[in-house]
Amino acid sequence: MPVPLRTDFDAKALRAIARTTKDGPQARRLLALAAIYDGAPRTEAARIGGVTVQIIRDWVVKFNAHGPAGLINRKPPGQPSKLTDAHRVALQAIVEQGPIPAIHGVVRWRLIDLIQWVWEEFRISISKQTLSRELRAMNDRKLSARPRHHAKSEAAVSAFKKLPRPSGGDPAGGRRQADRDLVRR
Hints:
Layout: H1 11-20, H2 24-37, H3 42-49, H4 53-66, H5 85-97, H6 101-104, H7 111-122, H8 128-137, H9 154-160, H10 177-180
Helix pairs in contact: 1-2, 2-3, 3-4
């Protein structure tokens, strides 16, 4: 016995909703269910929807439970976050405060340092990618300055730089392509 459709809608109402919706898959599903309201068999509704009869049954169950909104594609929820709001607040506070070298052993926060801090504080193991995603969601960005060697000599750098060419001179320095040819023309 097929699952009956709810009685508070009819074919005309479903077609009107299908006309106004901006979601194409939802409109297709609504039109297939409208055919069932008109008395068409489920196999005909499956042909209209371009699916199998089992999927039509799934649509009927969703429609009965949630109405037309139940026929909209939803993003699957995925795995819940390991960090709660309390963890995020503590993480935001420690990032804004900055590390204390004597206590934390670092002079600036890196992702791996924050992962270690989260483990020590909450015993939660998270990856660099997950922590980076959480920090981006809190409007924090990973900033990295250009590395600078502590013993860099500005005098040595300026002495090593190329000198500008004299203007109007021959860039080849007098050598020509003909000097490099193997066969004379």
